[in-house]
UniProtKB/TrEMBL annotation:
GO cellular component, one term: cytoplasm
Biological process according to GO: glutathione catabolic process
Gene Ontology molecular function: gamma-glutamylcyclotransferase activity; glutathione specific gamma-glutamylcyclotransferase activity
E.C. designation(s): 4.3.2.7
Gene source species: Micrurus surinamensis (Surinam coral snake)
Catalytic EC class: lyase
InterPro entries (alphabetical): ChaC (IPR006840), GGCT-like (IPR013024), GGCT-like_sf (IPR036568)
SUPFAM superfamilies: Gamma-glutamyl cyclotransferase-like (SSF110857)
Protein name: Gamma-glutamylcyclotransferase
The keyword Ribosomal protein is assigned to this record: no
Tree of life domain: Eukaryota
PANTHER family: CATION TRANSPORT PROTEIN CHAC-RELATED, GLUTATHIONE-SPECIFIC GAMMA-GLUTAMYLCYCLOTRANSFERASE 1
Amino acid sequence: GRVAKSPLWVFGYGSLVWKPDFEFTSRKVGYIRGYSRRFWQGDTFHRGNEKTPGRVVTLQEDYNGYTWGVGYELHGLQIAAVLKYLNIREAVLGGYDTKLVKFYPQEEEADEPVLALVYIATPQNPSYLGPASEEDIAAQIIVSSGRAGHNIEY
């Protein structure tokens, strides 16, 4: 197959920040606009189970919101390999959809953002838990653990 000439950026705002588990060309701290991070996605695999689902983050559209995270720059053969891996990790196991967003690297002098792929859990996926009080979310996180460890560690 053809190897892509231009880079692909992937924006991580949850476990992709500290545990990407894929090869990348560069990693930059930065933010996206128009979204806020929320513990509204259920997890019955990595941080919970069927009986006690954990809570992990997704993004909620928020006009005034900013979400800080990490942008990963991918080139060439990395792109297909990473997309295949993330499709399993985020889409199949996690129930996340993809969107293209403008990523603003922190250390860039120019205000020019780059387009980045981001995984967002929407209310349409079966694991979506939605909003709850901070107390209820904390209580659920305290009692949940899965294959990747206790939900508190997330």
